[in-house]
Amino acid sequence: MIELVLKSVLRTEESETWLGEDGQIGATVSSAVNFLHNPVDNNVFACHNHSITWVTIGSLITMAKLQGQAKADYVQRMFDEIAPSYDRGNRVMSLGQDMSWRRIAIRTAALPAGGAALDIGAGTGDMAFLLAPHAGTVVGIDFAPNMVALAQRKARSRESWRHVSFLLADALHLPFPDDGFHAVTIAFAIRNVADIRRGLSEMQRVLAPGGRIVCLEFVKPNSRFVRNGYFTFLRLALPTLGRLSGGRPESHRYLAESIKDFYTADDLRLMMREAGFTSVRSKGLNWGTVAVVSGVKDERSKVAHDRNDS
Questions:
Q1: What is the pTM of this model?
Q2: Domains of the chain by range and CATH?
Q3: Residue 75 above 70 pLDDT?
């Protein structure tokens, strides 16, 4: 049995800190997250806003409690490492349903013929390639370099995908001008955004007035009965499915914990409204464990921009 050593939390004026077994201040939380992947000591823990992330030999146990930049660093590295098995993992862990869910989300986007679409958290490109037949231009972004490299390789493999491009970028700092896309999609990625409200604000900024945002995500079911059964599935069955997909055990635990700690579809609708979207609605899938949440950028946003520019 590996002993987990817990130490007290120190707060400095600038950041949370973590302590090693010797009781000395080791680094900021961001550095502690990097340490999780290259442990030189069997007993260490990181703390950010009093949410403990612990690790044992070989980083076998981590909890999805990170926030802010610490979360971003951790998620980026994890997705970089699982990129080669990512597609297979999606098929296995969704029991083969994820592509049909993506198609429902794309229909919800109501992209005009020849329009421009942005897919955020594009991974290896599944959503972007499904958007391709409906769009004149598709741009996919992800902040994991290995994911982007695989997506770019796929895009070069088919002539019909030549209008699909992929960039390394952060959802919190989208490198695009205002009002540039007719649809913005994000599939199974908003859970991993370090600041969801800020991310939604960025999506609202780059979306053209009248354009639609569509978020496809695993959510916390409203039904207590479904929730209890679903969480049991995540705890017991997901690790086995993850092994079948060939991914890392740590990533499967992160997926289970991030879903359990995530919002309901009602919560996402509220955040979209707070970000300025109108006509916000959601469609539950898979007994309410998956949701398609969509909203529209108000046409009056264009008037507001024009007035600010004059």
A1: 0.75
A2: 17-63 (no CATH), 86-309 (3.40.50.150)
A3: yes
